[in-house]
Amino acid sequence: MREKSTSHEAVESLRLDLDKIKREEGIIGYILRSAKSASIDIKDPSKIIDYATLSSTALKSGENISEVFGLGDVSSVVVEGNEAKVLAMSVGGFRVSIFMRRDVDHNRFYEDLHLE
Hints:
The protein is α+β, with helices and mostly antiparallel strands. About 40% of the residues lie in helices and about 30% in strands. It contains 3 helices and 5 strands; from the N terminus they run H-E-E-H-E-E-E-H.
């Protein structure tokens, strides 16, 4: 399991993990964001703005709902549509969004990337 860190090594390790995930069947792409930068790897470049908007609002919306209803800390949010879904989560000091077909099991990616 990776240590919580915003070091260069942690970023590279996380990016390598995401690159492995992106090669999986049904994965559309990912966005990795820190406070200072973002790395975007989406198969359809014409939809980058759409995915970036979804990425930025999914986790924040989950956090807002949790705050309103007193649910505690949000470790991840899954937004599912008719054909695709996004797993949005915080990993260390980063926000990660993984976009995939609806039939892909997002739980295994959560377990692979999530830090306790």
